[in-house]
């Protein structure tokens, strides 16, 4: 690992003079330069699968704000798309997939053309590895199996993931077949990203918090544990950040069981509790409310300082508790970035 990268130093639990930062969804619809490229690129998927565009929009926020990490511009649903599931992004609806809600549909999914389909993404990672500043870390990512499965089974986003939760209850063996396929596909996808230059991996489990306690280990912990084991069989030292959004008091068990290097924490997590119960276990990344970033002003600045003060003495990376939303004023992102850079650690 490159020791001059603050982001990686923190993931190695080393002391740093400054707190590193980046933002989930730091490239995207809140930036006017992104919207200009989106018009030229066509659909959102066209943008994800075009290395020229994907590299450009990944670099856009770095030019503005000089974050300590760049994250590959892509989407968690390119994995089911590469497995053969129909996917499109509709204006005003978001992702729409042909539901994979019974065994025969799962059986039609295949790894046969998986890596060929994702070749443009791998090229994007390779080019980013060469083009980002030499003090900036490159993050590769994927969705965790549970969260990806919720879209695959339901056919779209859902506030409660009811269709997928019912399938897991009523057809557990069938659902396990889908999860096992996603473990294999996600492991191979992330290994390819590392081969092309990704220095850190993040696994997004956006809907982990909606799992009941007796299902959390089975569908949120165990699949991630297996993916990490697969990756580390080839790349033993690669830092892996888990983001089981909404896990609450289950974060410590998630850390111990999965073997993640670090965790992202969502906006619901009390800072004192995080400091006392999570930071002793691993580095922490988070957790400004994305809507407070929209709101801006004194309340935003006070909260940024509070997060820095309460978590900055331990291994900490400043981020949001979820992704930047489209209505975010770019000047608010600039202000938060300025505060973080100016913050003096004790």
Task: Write up this protein.
It is globular, with a radius of gyration of 19 Å. The chain has 346 residues and is of the alpha/beta class. Strand 5, helix 12 and strand 6 form a beta-alpha-beta unit. The mean pLDDT is 96. Helix 4 packs parallel to helix 8 and helix 16 runs parallel beside helix 17. The protein has 17 helices and nine strands. The chain has one domain: TIM Barrel (Alpha-Beta Barrel). Strands 1-4-5-6-7-8-9 form a seven-stranded parallel beta sheet.
Main β-sheet description:
7 strands, parallel
Please, what is the average pLDDT? 96
Uncertain segments are none
Specify the number of helices.
17
CATH architect. name = Alpha-Beta Barrel
Q: Structural class from helices and strands?
A: alpha/beta
Helix content: 40-55%
Radius of gyration from the CA trace? 19 Å
Give me the side-by-side strand order of the main sheet. Answer: 1-4-5-6-7-8-9
Structure described in brief:
This protein has about 350 residues and is of the alpha/beta class. Helices cover about 50% and strands about 10% of the residues. Helix 9 (about 145-155) crosses helix 11, helix 11 (about 170-195) packs parallel to helix 12 (about 215-235) and helix 16 packs parallel to helix 17 (about 330-340).
